[in-house]
Amino acid sequence: MMYYLKHLIDYWRQNMKQIIEKGILLVSCPDREGIVAAVSNFLFSNGANIVHSDQHSTDPVEGHFFMRIEFSHQNLSEVLPTLEEAFAVTAAPFSMDWSITLASRKARLAIFATKEDHCLQELIWRWQLGELHAEIAMVISNHPDFKELTENAGIPFYHVPVTKETKVSATETHLQLLKEQNIDTVILARYMQIIPGDIIHLFQNEVINIHHSFLPAFIGGSPYQQAFDRGVKLIGATAHYVNEQLDEGPIIEQDITRITHRYNVADLKRHGKDIERIVLYRAVKWHLEKRVIVHGNKTIVFQ
User: Fold this and answer.
1) pLDDT tens for residues 64-98?
2) CA 251: distance to chain centroid?
């Protein structure tokens, strides 16, 4: 009896050490034959099991190829550096841009906001429901209004005033906070300030903004007033990565709602808020789930 019990314990200990973990592989490269076979054979040969695969290729003559693979692997967190080193050899002949991410890792978010709370509220609510795979490390605002809202959710709040005179020092404070908290991604939840180039360069394709119009229409300030003046019948919102060109970064998600001639500017803003909050949430969620690949000034979003 003791003999069998000992073997049962040994078996349990051995198998408890083998933890199945999920990884995400993103690939972007010039299109050519053999990419899928090379990636699949690599994963199989290195003990990984493909759980889900999605791919897209553009024009076959001078096209580009994109792939997102979810795979499972024993003790992936331990072997990830070795796996990455080995995959570099497979990727080189295809000139791949690629990344392998441990799916369980939670990105650290910093949310910037000003005085409109609907997008901030949505992100906090979704995070509390477990629908955002991330840690909201802090909220930064150029006004003190959201201190109670943020701290009641257990999130640190930082009030950093931004004026024409203090813009440089405010940027230095922002950079210090972002570095101290090891932030991965910055979310602009209706933050009504232009983001300095220093932050954009440090967080390349990791700053997500919500613009309250269906870009490229009505770029810049007061888009609802611009839409009203133009007499449009549809209004929308656009979530995009931030680059140094105002409201011209790669678009991640957009949505619209129909309006009528009876709506004034206040009506447009009220209806627009619902679109803004859900569009930003979708974009952030897809970014965190590694479903977005940036290619030039466009994105490929795997659903």
Assistant:
1) 999 999 999 999 999 999 999 999 999 999 999 99
2) 12
136/129 Cα distance (integer angstroms): 13
What pLDDT sits at residue 217? Answer: 86
Please choose, from the candidates 52, 59, 66, the residue with its C-alpha nearest in 3D space to the C-alpha of residue 98. Answer: 66
Question: Comparing 62 with 302, which gets the higher pLDDT?
Answer: 302
Burial category of 25 from C-beta neighbours within 10 Å (exposed 0-12, middle 13-18, buried 19 and up): buried
Distance CA 25, CA 39 (A): 10
- Do residues 247 and 257 touch, judged by C-beta distance below 8 A? no
Q: What's the token pair of residue 231?
A: 């007499």
Q: Any idea which residues carry the catalytic annotation?
A: 247
pLDDT digits (tens, 9 = 90+) for 162-206: 998 999 999 999 999 999 999 999 999 999 999 999 999 999 999
Domain that holds residue 225: 107-301
Other Cβ atoms within 10 Å of 94 Cβ, number:
18
Asked whether residue 286 falls in the same domain as residue 212, the answer is yes
* Residue 159 shares a structural domain with residue 237: yes
- If one counts every other C-beta atom within 10 angstroms of the C-beta of residue 266, the result is 10
CATH number at 36 reads: 3.30.70.260
Whole-structure pTM value: 0.91
Whole-angstrom distance, CA of residue 60 vs CA of residue 57: 7
Structural domain total, the chain: 2
